[in-house]
Amino acid sequence: MDPAIEVKDLSVVFSSGNKEFTALDGLNLSIPCGQVFGFLGPNGAGKTTTMHVLLGFISATRGEARIFGTDVRESIARRRIGYLSEHPDTYRFLTGRELLTMAGRLFLIGRRQLASRIDEILPLVGIGEAANRKIATYSRGMMQRICLAQALINDPDLVILDEPTGGLDPIGRMDIRKIIADLKARGKTVFFSSHELSEVELVCDHLAILSKGRLVAQGPASKIIPPGESLEKYFMKVVNNP
Amino acid sequence: MTRILTIASTVWMEIIRKKDVYVLLILLGTLLMALVSLNVFGLGGTVKYVKDLGLLMALIFSWILGVNISSRELPSEEAQGTVFPLLAKPITRAELICGKWLGTWSIASAATLLFYILITGVVQFKGGTFNLAALLQAFILHSLTLGIICIIAIAFSTRMNQDASAAMAYVVTGTAFFVVPRIPELMAQATGFSANVLFLLYNLLPHFEVFDMRKRLVHDFGPASWKMVLIVACYGVLISLVFFLAAWLAYRNKRFSRGNLM
Amino acid sequence: MACIQKQAVLPGQPDVTATETGNTMKQTEARDLSAIRGWLMLILLGVISFSVSCWLSVSTWTLQAADNRSSIAGMLLGEGRLALSGHFYELADEYFHGGLEHQTKEAFRDSLFQKAAGEISPRRHIHLSGAETSEIIPWLRLATMMNPSNVTIYLDTAYWLSSESGRPDLAEQVLLEAQVRNPSSYKVQLERGRLFLQEKRIKDAKQAFNAGLALWPGEDKPDTFEAKDDKASLLIYRALIHEAEEERQEAITCLKGILNLFPERTSIKDRIKTLEEGKEPSLLASQVWSDMLKKDVQTKSGDRCKHPGEE
């Protein structure tokens, strides 16, 4: 069975005029299906760049990336992906239900199936009657929830979450953890990045730490952190002394 | 095709809810009423000037609407960050451009249809009529013009922000509307560098004058031959494809900034 | 499959979500109210602009002879109104030619675009006639609104109304407005006199020609051919009216005035001689001015088709 995500020698170099900036340098990752994978690193480490390569937003300078065996450059690779961006925003002139309908139609989900799928997802993310209101009336937390709902509309096998708990209150963060746990229980693969190390410790099976475009640590969460040390301490150690 | 239609329907919902079209419709109605109330030295029964100015205003308003709504679609997606969750779905950038174009073109054409209905009503109120076959042909060609205008604005917006792309689209389409039809007259007297420039403009820019049937409608010349309308329509489709190709080439490898989020 | 339910609010904790939702509902209501206010403002603006347009079209008749700069068009558009006036005047000419512009020298004659444009928007040389010519009047009206000091537009309008449209009454009103706007113009008086003669209103015609003679040359230079020719027209019409009223001396004086301008006009010399000898001219005065009026109309009709620069 193909791994959910496979990255081989991935490098991304941005050039601006005569200057070059290496965002990723020879990244190698293999994430099997069904894992909750935490992707950590300080600001500017290359986490979002990695996700953008996986989602086909940018092309790699070198190396390859595959999702369930399909090259990420092909649009069909995204059929089994759900994605929540770092600063979720969406079409505020639509209602929540209209947004999910639009998202579902882009996955070519049939109308009846889509309607029942929407009814299933809305309570999952904690949006009830608000689904019939315009998104412009939503609070920040509700916006995050509806964006998460549209990431799950196609019942994806791989869910990519970029800072899913950023800006949420404790209740919101707990809801996100429960959703991740539920996805794992259903055999989905979750690939997410976060600065909330305490959240990562609670939900992740495996994690990787990126620093300045390079992988500095990778492995099962229970084994990678030395005994007696917290993830935070370990993180600071590997990032400062790669 | 479903994805293209989905994107287009989202554009529809946005524009209808932003009420741009209604403002232009009310403005057109007001201006037409002002025209109808013009005291023509006490002489009645004149209606051609209402047709002429009404159709001119329909052209100008639809032009403004087409450029404005088309130039903001892609830049606003990027600025708001909605382009990321959109392209995270199995939709290609070509489908996205197509969907945006289809949405903006169809709504600009629908607005134009409303303009035409309003003008026809006012003309009939004044005691005049339009030849229906000519009116249909005029609407078809006007709609094709809008298709070209919308894809030009979208093409610029693939690489520029909303204001810059709108400005460039106005310059290009404005030159096509007002300068290109006069180039044959200017070329008869131009020499040297200016002649070369005019020659380039004549061959590079779209020729909107071949889509303009206002004179036929105003002066009751009757419909044009359907063969010529078909030829002009093919030309319109060809020009649109050229600009679509340019838009796709500009957009397919574009790296998006994180917009207003950073 | 585990379902995640929304967390209940714990005792003592404020329902943050409900408060947030309440605030956003209030924001929505405020937005809806402002949208309604916006619509009402727009409708009010539409009603005001419509009323202003009606008032403008009525008030142009009642404006007294005034500085053109005090007109609304002048205040709104400045000197741009002159360009607009010229454009509307050209449109009137275009309408006279059935919507076709004057043909000029052009390149790319055989190009597909020119052929297609010619098919979509035809290019034939036609002239409107009869009641059809009333369609050019709105453009002339707009041209006079933009530039009331352009006497030529008023004169052309009066011509179209009196000849092709068959409305000499409206032509008279146009010339009256022209007189109000341009009180020092002798050309308006000349045209008024011609109109009155056509209507056989001799007394009014006499007054108009007298006024024209008093105002000549106005702002024009007196030594130009056009100014001298206009004065000659004023004098000949006035002379013919004198003749019709048996005022021979006055008629001779007017005719001699023409000779001062154009000494070579032998027909004038002959008529003076006939009048001085006490004889009846072979053509009566009324016959002469009828022929002159017809010739003036024909000359104007012919001038419609002079297209400078046309191929």
Helix content of chain A: 25-40%
Strand content of chain A: 25-35%
Poorly predicted residue ranges of chain C: 1-21, 58-68, 307-311
Gross morphology of chain A is globular
- Over all CA atoms, what is the radius of gyration of chain C? 32 Å
Strand order, sheet with most strands of chain A: 6-7-8-3-9-10
Could you describe the largest sheet of chain C, including whether it forms a barrel? none
In CATH, what is the class of chain C? Mainly Alpha
CATH architecture of chain C: Alpha Horseshoe
| Biggest sheet details of chain A | 6 strands, mixed
Euclidean distance between termini CA atoms of chain A: 33 Å
Give me the secondary-structure category of chain A: alpha/beta
* Alpha-beta content class of chain C: mainly alpha
Query: Can you tell me the CATH architecture of chain A?
Result: 3-Layer(aba) Sandwich
Biggest interface and residues each: B-C, 48 and 46 residues
Superfamily at the CATH H level of chain C? Answer: Tetratricopeptide repeat domain
Tally of individual helices of chain A = 8
Distance between the termini of chain C: 85 Å
Q: Low-confidence runs of chain A (pLDDT<50, min 5 residues)?
A: none
CATH topology of chain A: Rossmann fold
Tell me about this structure.
The complex is a heterotrimer of chains A (242), B (262) and C (311). Chain A has one domain (5-85, 151-240): P-loop containing nucleotide triphosphate hydrolases (Rossmann fold). Helix content of chain A is 35%, strand content 27%. Chain A is built from eight helices and ten strands. In chain A, strands 6-7-8-3-9-10 form a six-stranded mixed sheet, with helices on both faces. In chain A, strands 2-1-4-5 form a four-stranded antiparallel sheet, with helices on one face. Chain A is globular and about 50 Å long. Chain A starts with a strand and ends with a helix. The mean pLDDT of chain A is 87. In chain B, 75% of the residues lie in helices and 0% in strands. Chain B has one domain. With 311 residues, chain C is an all-alpha fold. Chain C is built from 13 helices and no strands. Chain C starts with 15 loop residues before the first helix and ends in an 8-residue tail after the last helix. Mean pLDDT of chain C is 76; it is low at 1-21, 58-68 and 307-311. Chains in contact: A-B, A-C, B-C. Chains B and C meet through helix 2, helix 3, helix 8, helix 10 and helix 11 of B and helix 1, helix 4, helix 5 and helix 7 of C.
